[in-house]
Batch of 3 targets.
Target 1
Amino acid sequence: MTTQPHENYWWHFDMLHDHKRNVAYSRAIEKLIRSRKGGEGDLRCLDIGTGTGLLASLVAHHSKSIREPSEGVPPGVPLPVVHAVEVVEDLSEAAKDTFRKNGFRVTVHRKHSTELCIEEKSRFNLIVGELLDTELIGEGLIPSMLHAKAHLTTEKFTSIPARARVYGQLVRHEALRAMSGLQ
């Protein structure tokens, strides 16, 4: 039995269908872009782990929408530079299709963000990413963000999400202990 590509990425589609989460990301991105409106230099965004391109699309969409004539953005304010990294080939191809079909100019790199090399003058002042899993720091969040801060971002950059809260509870159960391999 062969599997369909989507069967390998069920976890990604669960995230795409999480309406509450996606609305929160959209509002945070829109708020940031509206607050910048022509004032803080060019917006340079990197979407780490873009998947099918949702967050990079939100950056491109909200940046484009505030440049409508009714918004009063001065002429010549450039659209943001948006780059996206995704290591999974099927997902990076889906992201490219998403950007193309929506008319968004996003450069896709099929690699880990830790493999990117960016010149100082081209560093990013916005990092977006969905590297939060059920463990919060499982999908390489810490090494990815440490690398981004050291090698990919400007000194003053913004990250969406910017913070998180972890809750834990101690549990003791012999069956769980046996499964974990801990002594």
Target 2
Amino acid sequence: NSQGHSAVRELLCAQEVLPDFRESGDPTQPEQSDVQITSKPKRQRVGTFVDAHELALGSSRPPTLVAPQLKPRMQTADGALAPDLAAALDSMFDRLSADGQMLSAEEQERWLLTINRQLGRGSEYRAATKAREARGGDLIREDFTNVYVAEAQAGKFWGIEHDLNAVLGAGVADPSTPPFTAVFDYIYFTEQTLRLEGVQDSLYSMSMPALPNEEHPSDHLPVAAVFSLR
């Protein structure tokens, strides 16, 4: 679930990830070049892996993620909340809070259950719990908004859109805007043991709208490959 030169790709293809390695090439993760992945060398001894679709198609590989273009509607160029998202978060807080001032423990629990379906999971749960402990009581609007400021700064735009849809029944996506596309799905294999015979034709088309929709239940398009044993 990432694009570019990820730590997973490095581990599989180079067989190791060293402390000075930094991920790159994923515009949805703007701070990735500053994040240390590991403090100790990580290695695998299975062998050198190859990206099946890169081997078969090279740079012409089609995208596997076709999702709403959300970043411009959620975050300004300097990293602040965009007006559309700020207004949507205010509406979400008003929907959740009985008095429009605070989220009680019960209201916070209802919010987290609505977006995550169970308590104890999700970065929103961890951030909200930390904010409640720091305040020593109920969350105020600023605390609630800051949970999503952190989500946006981490590039979790589709997660925010999911939460807005779960609580409000609508997000900030503009259906008239061309979708965001990227290669987010891969099949890796070892050439020592397998021979690549072919990859499945992509379902992607240039005219495809943002997914999911009635024809595609996910914003990820399937990838498949055929191998033979060496």
Target 3
Amino acid sequence: MLAHVTVPAVKSPPWRRRHSLQAALLVAVGIILLMGVAPRRNFAYIPPSVAELVPKSAEMMERVAQVVDKVGDRLVTPQDASAMVDAGAMLIDVRTPMQIHSMTEDKSIEKAIIDPFDDWVKYKKPTNAIKYAYEFGRKIIVTCTAGPKSTLAWEFLKEHGIDAYVIKGGFSAWEEAGLPTHVNKFHGYDLK
């Protein structure tokens, strides 16, 4: 009678398993693309250039003119935005601290989070706080001094799958409506 000999199972090295998983993922993505399930883009999005981020520059205003018609019903009045914030929406001032300092004497909308759009463009994505807030069902509202920069921020968020709103007239319209504002206390390093 022959003795039954068990042979120990040979595990493949970790690098081989990792490469097999990567290959399987590539095949899956290829199949999805072939089936046409992947979302279609109507245009190739190009993030704003440095010149397009300069407030009131000709380059910014030209880009805003191309985008503003796409905003549609996502353009809200300061009063509607205030009601949305009271209901839990996240309000984001997309200006840099230096722009807030020089354009509105350090004033911004009460309850607004200062999260410069320039940083989103630099890092090629919106901040995690915005993504998480949106994923958990909070509405996102963007604002700037008068509206152009927040319109570009709206376009950027839309490209990244985040549905947002823009305050018509920005901070200026908010202040004219008599809605609450506050004065920020920036440090010297914020204003560089």
